[in-house]
Amino acid sequence: MAGGKTEQTAAELLRASVSAAQIERELPHLGNDERRRVFEERLRAQADVEAEDQVRCREQAHAEARHAEARAADQERAERER
Fold it and tell me: Nearest-CA neighbor of 20 among 40, 50, 6, 47?
């Protein structure tokens, strides 16, 4: 589990570094405060997208589990009826 957290943090740092470089390249005229505000907005937006993806993945996993349970129940009923 600790390794997963380390990898996640490394990925977050990489995304943050890329985002900071993009802001510097795209908006070189911004001062430090404004650059920080844009950077924080982008990080929040990315976090929102990732949270939505996680919810979608959990919902899909739950749906797949429900389908697997229904298939197993159907199979058990079919075997009992034989």
Answer: 40
24: Cα separation from own chain's centroid: 25
Question: What is the rounded (10 degree) CA torsion for 70, 72, 74, 79?
Answer: -170
- CA 3, CA 54: separation in Å to the nearest integer? 19
Q: How confident is the model at residue 23 (pLDDT cuts 50, 70, 90)?
A: very high
pLDDT higher than 80, residue 51: yes
Indicate the SS3 state at residue 82.
Answer: coil
- Mean of pLDDT over the chain: 90
Contacts of 16 (CB under 8 A, 6+ apart): 39, 43
This prediction has a pTM of: 0.65
- The DSSP letter of residue 14 is H
Dihedral in degrees, nearest 10, Cα atoms 51, 47, 49, 46 = -170
